[in-house]
Amino acid sequence: MTPDTLKAACLELNGAEETFPFGPETSVFKVGGKVFALTALDGQPLKVSLKCDPDLALQLREAHPAIVGGWHLNKRHWNTVTLDGSVPEPLVREMIEDSYDLIVAKLPRRQQLILDWQGVGAAGRQR
Fold first, then answer.
1. How far apart are CA 108 and CA 118, in angstroms?
2. Cα separation of 9 and 4, whole Å?
3. Keyword DNA-binding: yes or no (predicted)?
4. What is the DSSP letter of 1?
5. Domains and CATH numbers, the chain
6. Which of 9, 94, 99, 104 could form a disulfide with 51 if both were Cys (CB 3.0 to 4.6 A apart)?
7. Separation between Cα atoms, residue 68 and residue 49, nearest integer Å
């Protein structure tokens, strides 16, 4: 995964925005004002930190040496993925979407509906 494809994967999600609260070298991707991904797009090697369900986070770390507890983040809820090609790109994209979903799930229902989030049913109830 290249820096451009990583950025595109984050920004293609409804309502996602790129911000730079820690300076121009760190891209922070947010939805509803909440962080779902952090990366230094110019970093060598390229890495991204993503929110993750705690049980799944441990499984991913056991299965992939390139996935470790979130760097400078709550390691129970965040993973940092080194994008060195050892983690398949479809899995990285799934992890980005899962991180986004974990954040959107905590937003008010009105915001979820505006984002046309898949986790909200047609009647406005969460699935």
1. 14
2. 9
3. yes
4. -
5. 3-114 (3.90.1150.30)
6. 99
7. 9
